[in-house]
Amino acid sequence: MLELMNVSKRVGNQDHIRDVSLRFDKGSLNVLLGPTLSGKTSLMRLMAGLDKPTSGDIHFNGESVVGMPVQKRNVAMVYQQFINYPAMSVYENIASPMRVAGVDGETIDRKVREAAALMKLSEFLDRTPLNLSGGQQQRTALARALVKGADLVLLDEPLANLDYKLREELRVELPKIFAETGAVFVYATTEPHEALLLGGKTAALSEGRVSQFGSTIDVYNRPADLITAQTFSDPPMNIVPMTKSGAAFAFGGVSVAVSGELAGLADGAYKVAIRPHHLMLHAPSGETLAQETRVSTTEITGSESFIHVETEGLRWVALTHGVHRVEVGDKVPVYLDPRSFFVFDQQDRLVAAPSQDGLPHEDLASASAGHG
Amino acid sequence: MNKVQNNKAWFMVLPVLVIVALNAVVPLMTVVNYSVQDTFGNNVFFFEGTRWFSEVLASERFHGALGRQFSLTATILAIEIPLGVAIALAMPRSGFWASVCLVLMALPLLIPWNVVGAMWNIYALPDIGLLGYGLNWLGISYDYTQQPLAAWFTVILMDVWHWTSLVVLLAYAGLQSIDENYYRAAQIDGASRWAVFRYIQLPKMKHVLTIAILLRFMDSFMIYTEPFVLTGGGPGNSTTVLSIDLVKAALGEFNLGIASAMSIIYFLMTLLVCWLFYTITMQGEKS
């Protein structure tokens, strides 16, 4: 079990990590989700023991490990770049942590072959890393982390530099492979859908702070604040400043009737966030708020289309499935469905989230988030 | 599909061919020409075949110069490459001092050969030079105009002073290209400082070091100015390396046949060593 207690890290006059407290259980899968420079790598380096926290304490299995040199911690780490010993064969690369640890030759051979088989590297054992494809190089690095039998496995965006197909493949296999080792498994990523696919628990990071930590699905469904919601949304959530009075939410002079949780909120100004795939270009059934917008950009990937629109000085993006033909400059109405509202107060705290059974129909087909 | 023949392309390449012909092939052919003929003046030539080549290859004088040349080059490489790598390793990786070091390192490279020669010549003079005087004052007998060993020492010192920087800069560039995460990974593996050098830094520097060795080999194999400025190849013929011997034969004795044959052997030898070295180093890259 890895425990971070009020950990902060200052470098020069910059705060890299601010007062982070986390608890990762043995054998658990934990995702660090956050944009670039949010502190994922800094946090991992603190966990590994490569850096010392400026303040706070880090415990492993109940004992403080601050100040313990990294070699003594039994940690494995895999990076976004493919890091292998360039002059060694794949075999020797995988064997290297065991050689340092002084494991006997027979065990080394058995473990190397096991790991190589698991990572589909068996036929490349004699090659040097430079003669392998990117995916094979990264699998070598992963195999090296695997054979070490580490108590803590840190993967820092390990799939970011791989091509799409390999990522899909490894993303499914990795948690399974490492789960069997019983290690604390920490996986850093910038991509919300990667976090969702991995499952487990997610810590949402932004500007060196953990804004929320909990089961991945819970964090996705009920982000505690706006920043967490944004971290967990790609493309970003659409923010609509709205006023609530009585049983209606109003934006730009138009209002829509709401019921249930939303109707129970105190009257006043709120920030409403809507996921891109809930911003609809066709009116769904039920009460909606229609807003005239102007198309500023469209991105069509084939299976889905991103329609960027502008209205009242706000920029929104709608994600629809299939190819959606609109021209830049077109006037299109978009429909805001109260059943998809994430409502935040003026301090950006979540006060209401969509209930999981009453969502608009389009999200069922949404390809981006898997589970809405 | 049939290959399209584009004969117009030849016209585009023609200017380059003409330039290369005029500045490389023609002068080289002149040398080749001299190396197989003899003349008594008045543009009358006699074909001599391989006579000059056999004479050069059999001569004690050539063997001597060649031996001195190889020892000098080997010594220079043996000092400059490890020293350059060591300095590069010791240099700061970033920040103000990294820039300072780089500028200091680049300075010697900007000084012309004969200036370096003259500088060290004066610096090492036993009666008025600081180095020469200092060494003698310490009780070490040092006079490069009299002692072959002292002359050798001075020539090597000059070259090391002048060119180690080049190795440093190349090795430093190689080191800078190593991602910081390699060091992190090694640290997590518990690798020693030596292991980091042996398994990460050295392999990552392999290509730049190959270039450094090739450049320093070629340059030091063609060394001329330093021994020439220092003692003109002496004392005796102790610093008469190939290039000095060649100039003596060609311009001192006007032995054109011998000198031309020597030039060609010299050229082929440099080429051969470089090719061998490169082939052996790069072997195993594509296995």
Q: How would you describe this structure in keywords?
A:
heterodimer, A: about 375 residues, alpha+beta, Rossmann fold, OB fold (Dihydrolipoamide Acetyltransferase, E2P), 2 domains, 6-stranded mixed β-sheet, 6-stranded antiparallel β-sheet, 20 strands, about 35% strand, disordered C terminus, B: about 290 residues, mainly alpha, MetI-like fold, two-stranded antiparallel ribbon, 2 strands
Please sum up the structure shown.
Chain A is α+β, with helices and mostly antiparallel strands and 372 residues long.
Describe the structure.
- The complex is a heterodimer of chains A (372) and B (287).
- Chain A is an alpha+beta fold and 372 residues long.
- Chain A folds into two domains: 2-231, Rossmann fold (3-Layer(aba) Sandwich), CATH 3.40.50.300; 238-369, Nucleic acid-binding proteins (OB fold (Dihydrolipoamide Acetyltransferase, E2P)).
- Chain A contains eight helices and 20 strands.
- Chain A has helices at residues 40-48, 90-101, 105-118, 134-147, 164-179, 192-198, 216-221, 226-231; strands spanning 2-11, 14-24, 29-33, 55-60, 63-64, 75-78, 152-156, 184-189, 201-206, 209-215, 238-245, 248-251, 254-257, 268-274, 289-300, 304-311, 314-321, 331-336, 342-344, 350-352.
- In chain A, the strands form four sheets. A six-stranded mixed sheet of chain A has the order 6-7-8-3-9-10, sandwiched between helices.
- In chain A, a hairpin with a 5-residue loop joins strand 19 and strand 20 (350-352).
- Chain B has 287 residues and is an all-alpha fold.
- Chain B has a single domain (60-286), classed as MetI-like (MetI-like fold, Orthogonal Bundle), CATH 1.10.3720.10.
- Chain B contains twelve helices and two strands.
- Chain B has helices at 9-35, 51-58, 60-90, 96-106, 113-123, 130-137, 148-176, 180-189, 193-221, 225-230, 242-252, 256-282, and strands at 37-39, 45-47.
- Chain B has a two-stranded antiparallel sheet with strand order 1-2.
- In chain B, a hairpin with a 5-residue loop joins strand 1 (37-39) and strand 2 (45-47).
- The longest helix of chain B is centred in the first third of the chain and has 31 residues, at 60-90.
- The model of chain B has no long low-confidence stretch (mean pLDDT 87).
- Classes of the chains: A alpha+beta (372), B mainly alpha (287).
- At the A-B interface, strand 6 and helix 2 of A face helix 8 and helix 9 of B.
